[in-house]
């Protein structure tokens, strides 16, 4: 038995009817690559909310906790590879039907699958940015610096959590050493948008410009509970273009959707492969 949609599947028909799709993806697109998602089928948090921007910038112990967990989590996150959902969307682009893909994910797996026109709405975890001078460092390079400063932590292991985090609990993080920027001594932060931090205006504007040129919108693997993504669905609805979604469970935009397919992303998109 195959999970691929039948020829008369509404998602296949939807793709066939539209020539310039604006695609928005979320965590559900990457779960089959071994990266856990944040929310359950009702859109509720599965775990403690991710680190808050203000806490990260103002509290040393928050930075110690974040980077200790990231030291463990990055070892597997950094090795994640695209799954069939990423490859299917790359083929959709290659067919000329995807004008732009905007992703809420920070894993760069769409790009690894060969997708070219991608907006990383929430940034990218493979870079570390200095909040002082703005300099950027590859995450793999910073991983080595973290390991050199905290060799004893490299023996630990923990279950994977979303976005390169790890469920490292019951540890005393006070001894964890977080290297500062070598250029200016500033605070180093992953080059992603934390909760409580605004998405850069130019990123939002670029996404809206591409949405304005689309004839339909496809949401893949997102509950849209975060406003940064939901606003694009609101904009599509205001333009009165059709909106389809692939998501296991409720989304914040259910009342705005033309229809929804409740399947795993790779199964729902298999007809594109």
From TrEMBL:
InterPro entries: DHS-like_NAD/FAD-binding_dom, NAD-dep_sirtuin_deacylases, Sirtuin, Sirtuin_cat_small_dom_sf, Sirtuin_class_II, Ssirtuin_cat_dom
Cofactor(s) needed: Zn(2+)
Main location: cytoplasm
Deacetylase sirtuin-type domain residues: 1-273
Localization per Swiss-Prot or TrEMBL: Cytoplasm
Keywords of the record: Cytoplasm, Metal-binding, NAD, Transferase, Zinc
Active-site residue numbers: 122 (proton acceptor)
Binding site for NAD(+): 104-107, 221-223, 247-249, 265
E.C. numbers: 2.3.1.286
Family from the record: Belongs to the sirtuin family. Class II subfamily.
Alphabetical list of HAMAP family matching this protein: Sirtuin_ClassII
Function of the molecule: NAD-dependent protein deacetylase which modulates the activities of several enzymes which are inactive in their acetylated form.
Protein name: NAD-dependent protein deacetylase
Name of the coding gene: cobB
């Amino acid at each position: 038995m195959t999970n691929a949609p039948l020829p008369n599947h509404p998602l296949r028909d939807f793709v066939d009817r539209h020539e310039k799709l604006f695609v928005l993806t979320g965590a559900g697109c990457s779960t089959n690559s071994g990266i856990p998602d944040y929310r359950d089928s009702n859109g509720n948090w599965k775990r403690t909310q991710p680190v808050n921007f203000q806490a990260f910038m103002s509290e040393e112990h928050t930075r110690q906790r974040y980077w200790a967990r990231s030291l463990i989590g990055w070892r597997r996150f950094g090795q994640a590879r695209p799954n069939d959902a990423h490859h299917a969307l790359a083929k959709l682009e290659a067919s000329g039907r995807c004008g732009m893909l905007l992703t809420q994910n920070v894993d760069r797996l769409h790009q690894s699958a060969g997708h070219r026109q991608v907006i990383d709405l929430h940034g990218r975890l493979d870079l570390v940015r200095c909040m002082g001078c703005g300099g950027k460092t590859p995450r793999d390079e910073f991983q080595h610096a973290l390991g050199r400063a905290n060799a004893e932590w490299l023996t630990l292991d923990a279950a994977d959590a979303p976005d390169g985090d790890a469920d490292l609990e019951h540890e005393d993080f006070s001894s964890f050493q977080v290297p500062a920027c070598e250029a200016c001594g500033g605070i180093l932060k992953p080059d992603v948008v934390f909760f409580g931090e605004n998405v850069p205006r130019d990123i939002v504007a670029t996404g809206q410009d591409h949405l304005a040129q689309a004839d339909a919108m496809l949401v893949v693997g997102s509950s849209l509970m975060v406003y940064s993504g939901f606003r694009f669905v609101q904009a599509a609805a205001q333009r009165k273009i059709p909106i389809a979604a692939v998501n296991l469970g409720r989304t914040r935009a259910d009342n705005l959707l033309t229809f929804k397919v409740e399947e795993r992303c790779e199964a729902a998109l298999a007809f594109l492969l």
